[in-house]
Design brief:
By secondary structure, the chain is α+β, with helices and mostly antiparallel strands. The chain has helices spanning about 45-50, 80-100, 115-125, and strands at about 1-5, 15-20, 25-30, 65, 70, 75-80, 105-110, 135. Strand 4 (about 65) and strand 5 form a beta hairpin.
């Protein structure tokens, strides 16, 4: 079993957690002993919040609602390429900024991302000209 030390992604406290991996799967998490932030303690999210990683219900490919091959709110979810998903999202964000202004867009990120991912996410939205950024870490 391999052990990886990382920062818990669930809030901004910065607790350290040891993740144990066996056969390329996370099998348990433990608080990092004697870490100055969490002193060997973890909340329930830090201790057990990793279980979603291997869920068979987890989305792994982008989906887009389409009807007759084009986006439609009344369409059915269809698997699309990452390029198509990125292009669709970029065009919708840009059209909203052009039509209204940057204050009409917002980003809502996830506590299940790495802190570094959330940092880049908020930087992206701030570069678009909005401070309307939030995440679900306090749920």
């Amino acid at each position: 079993m391999e052990k990886f030390q990382t920062v818990c992604p669930y809030c901004g406290t910065g607790c350290n957690v040891d993740i144990f991996v066996e056969n390329n799967k996370i099998v348990k998490a433990e608080p990092t002993k004697d870490h100055p932030v969490n002193d060997g303690e973890l909340c329930l999210k830090g201790m057990y919040g990793w279980e979603y990683v291997h869920s068979p219900r987890r989305l792994t490919k982008p989906l887009l609602r389409k009807k007759d091959g084009v986006f439609s709110k009344e369409g059915k979810l269809e698997e699309v390429s990452w390029d198509e998903a990125y292009k669709f999202a970029a065009e919708r964000i840009q059209s909203t900024v052009d039509k209204y202004n940057p204050s009409h867009i917002m980003g809502f990120s996830s506590a299940r991302c790495l802190n570094e991912d959330n940092y880049v996410f908020q930087k992206f939205f701030r570069a678009l000209g909005t401070n309307n950024v939030d995440h679900c870490a306090r749920l």
